[in-house]
Task: structure prediction
Amino acid sequence: TQGDSQKTQEYLDGIFRLWLLTDEQKSRLAPLTQNYLKLIQQFNSSRTLTSYPG
Result:
């Protein structure tokens, strides 16, 4: 859950690192990863990562 990930800080070494990439860096990722990040953007209305599936 979101609370668990904040408590353990596991997201800092995972999704958060991907979230901070520039558009140019994201364009070099595998297509499946690019699609996942686009999906996550739909769950977050701002540049702040607040929720994500997975």
About this structure: The chain has one domain: 2-43. The two ends are 9 Å apart (CA to CA). The chain has a mean pLDDT of 86. The CA atoms of residues 45 and 51 lie 10 Å apart.
